[in-house]
Amino acid sequence: MAKFSFFSSSSPKYIPSSPSSFTSFPASPLNQNFTQAMMEETVETAESVIRKWDPNTPSFTKIVSLFNHSRKEAKEFIRCVRDLRRAMHFLVSQDSQSPKLALAQNLMQIAMARLEKEFFQILSSNRDKLDPESVSGQSSISSNSEFEDVMGSDDDDESDNEMRKAGESITQVEKASVVVMSDLKAIAESMISCGYGKECVKIYKRIRKSIVDGGLSLLGIEIYKGSRFHRIDWVTLEHMIKNWIKAAKIGIATLFRGEKLLCDHVFSASNSTRESCFYEIANEAAINLFKFPEFVAKEKKSHERIFPLMDLQAAISDLWQDIEMIFYCDAVAGVKSQALTSLQKLKVSIHSALTDFESTIQKDTTKALTPGGGIHKLTRSTMNFISSLSKYSGVLSEIFADHPLPRNTRLLESYVRTPISEDEQHNHALSVHFAWLILVLLCKLDTKAEHYKDVSLSYLFLANNLQLIIETVRSTHLRNLLGDDWLNKHEDKLGAYAGNYEIAAWSNVFMSLPEEPTDLSPEEAKIYFRRFHTAFEEAYMKQSSRVVPNAKLRDELKVSIAKKLVPEYREFYRKYLPMLGQERNIEILVRFKPDNLENYISDLFHGTPIHASSSFSSSSSSSSWKSLGCVSG
């Protein structure tokens, strides 16, 4: 097929396709002569219309654009081209040397030059009406009869009638967009049917590719090269990831989707043409777009960088339905392949980062003891990280499905809720992984607790850290993943730690009073008073430096200690103090009243140590302890 351009002064002759495509006529001489006369008349009619828009004839109108000037004349022009093509098919089948056929060929070349120019002008001057956002809002334009090609019909209604056809529910911009798209479709179908498809497609590809490339550039998408990523610092790369996610959502859902819809509409008459067009316009840019996540995934893997990686994977997963819908044909299958490669690379990188995170917990060698048995920084950082991970359950469930724990998880599974529904079954592997990560932390905390020389401090340390773990699970998405069974079992464990702390820290005080009610002599009573006061002072001075950051746990420990200690001492105090009424320096012998004990206990676990030189002669200034339910003296 010969090519031409409306920028060229010379034009090739139109050679019609096989006459078999033209409707056959009856073979009788009368009908044949009648049809020949009709076809020649068609050529003459077409000549008057086409030459009006030929710049080389005196009748040429000075109007720049046929389609902008009069839609009625534009439709008439398209119809004349269609009729001219039919006439040429007939004439070539009758007499290939016919002067009328030569005239028709010349007219067809003039018409194609005009339509090529119109096609270029419409594409160039209506970018605002063909922007991807306007086009992508018309997803049914190719199939909805309401948007049938107005140019290809025999209806002579004016432009306002065509706009009515576009539908009252769409905006004025979208209405204008529908009309422009219909014009392009009519021209494309006319040129392709007349054998000038290559010229039409060439213009379309050049203009629309520049729009797609320019749109991505405005979104901050550049040509990505793997070698450059090794030189980018993480802060800059993280910023690029955030920008890419925003750009990809717009690029896929609006830019590429709109371009696909426009291409499908304009070239709806030819599957191969529209696939080829879309390939030339979008393939290179879309593959480059999805190379970015792959390059990011290849960078150094550490758990600190896992969240931007999961954001990337979530973004591609969210766009996957659009990706499959837009890039479904074989010509652009490479785009889906690149997006899938990026997803797989991201999954591997994220799993590697999770492995690094687990290893970081296990290899933590911090030997510095947390003052007062407080919360270790490893507990805070690990639980902050794990709670943040739980927000990405959708991403992680896919990864854990591909990378199950290589351990016997029967013990872990007993800690998490048994799945009932299909969705719960899907999340069960995720729950087991989170349970495992927390178990790794708990085992590490057990090791760190052994570094305390004071057993009571070890138990308090374990209680404090487990309390933080439980509260983090309870207040985040982890609760949905691990379930109430996990919480209940670990709360029981917390209670055991707290009970062991009380025994180790306060048992000497509890045992300093008589175990059973008995009658004591004054001397025996004095011995018990001294023994109790000494045991309480020693325990209090040691425990005053202990810290319990969680208010609920702190109050529960105070109440528990007081309930075990104060009532017993109150009864002993009430029974034997009168017996010692004649003793000199009784305030030295009996230094604590029952109410004093409550006040002292109420000041515990704030990490404010009392030294041996401190006086125990005055009661604590705290008065809030009585509100906790202890018996007052």
From TrEMBL:
Biological source species: Arabidopsis lyrata subsp. lyrata
Q: Which Gene3D superfamilies match?
A: Exocyst complex component Exo70
Which InterPro entries does UniProt cross-reference here?
Cullin_repeat-like_dom_sf, Exo70, Exo70_C
Q: What taxonomic classification does the UniProt entry list for its organism? A: Eukaryota, Viridiplantae, Streptophyta, Embryophyta, Tracheophyta
What is this protein for, i.e. what is its function?
A: Component of the exocyst complex.
Sequence segments annotated as region (Disordered): 1-20, 129-169, 614-633
- Protein name, as recorded: Exocyst subunit Exo70 family protein
GO-annotated biological processes:
exocytosis; positive regulation of defense response to bacterium; protein transport; response to molecule of bacterial origin
What Gene Ontology molecular function terms does this protein carry? phosphatidylinositol-4,5-bisphosphate binding
* Record-annotated membrane-spanning stretches: none
Assigned protein family? Belongs to the EXO70 family.
